[in-house]
Amino acid sequence: MMKILFYELKFLITVLFFWALGSYEKGFERPSPIQEESIPIALTGTDILARAKNGTGKTAAFCIPALEKIDSDYNVIQVVILVPTRELALQTSQVCKELGKHLNIQVMATTGGTSLRDDIIRLHQPVHLLVGTPGRILDLAKKGMCNLKNSSVLVMDEADKLLSPEYQPSVEQLITFLPPNRQMLMYSATFPVTVKDFKDRYLRKPYIINLMDELTLKAANQSVNNLLQFCESSGNTGQENHRAGLFLLLFIAKMLQDHRNRVFHDFRNGACRNLVCTDLFTRGIDIQAVNVVINFDFPKSSETYLHRVGRSGRFGHLGLAVNLITHDDRFNLYRIERELGANIKRLPHLIGQATFYH
Fold first, then answer.
1. Domains recognised in the chain with CATH numbers
2. Each residue of 258-294: pLDDT tens digit?
3. In Å, what is the CA distance from 252 to each residue of 238, 249, 275, 278?
């Protein structure tokens, strides 16, 4: 009984501290369902496999308990957070820095495509929490530059992507550098069947959280704050928008990292409200002002659809996804509706002027 009361009290103190600082997202008044479900369990040291929609506060759900477990007087890497993209690594590390700024916790982000030398120099300074892509962290560990033997917590954000053929070999190699009694926390909006095998091999009696509910179109008559347009090839869409007289930003894989960082910064800070991007942008990027997503090219899988539409309506706010459907897309539409258990409705014939740019 005392143990339950202790963790309930610890959770309450953590949440109060979290909201008092106001360092995660301005305007939040209470923990989200995934945070309420996840944080108390994570604080007990239990492994977690959590499924929740994008924009529901998953980042804070694992950052808060991870930071709680760090002893800032012990200058070793104690928590590792794996993410699939550079942008998500930078964003997650920023959340951790904001949450831990009064706890003297040192956070480092490392990803491929950046200077390995700079990372090695940084690792000679205190690092308590390491956020990065699997390949880069594995490279540093193999070179002996990154000691993970004291890392008691491993977090996998966007776990479905991390367990794709592109990343899973690196993830599994990286686990061998961590202590055998580490705690593992896995979060994602989707969990394909490949996750079950990984869970059975690496997680110890995990606590399962599933907060997925039906995707519905709440409203089509709302003003546009920030707009995302997803497409297979951004070039054609960008040309169409320019011809329509719209100012836009492009975010695509072939851009240099510095350029991508600049585009991400400008869009987040409102320098431009219209961003044309490929699916590179779907992985965990959290910009709360985005309330409309347009699928210029309709996705072929329910997983891609879920990650795209999850860019809008973050943390309980109203969001709208508009799908441009061709005759050839109809079978993908029917299949995605069936797999997600969702009813993707037709837009009404008459839409209020507030829907469009002024």
1. 2-210 (3.40.50.300), 226-355 (3.40.50.300)
2. 777 787 777 777 777 777 777 766 565 566 667 788 8
3. 11, 10, 10, 6
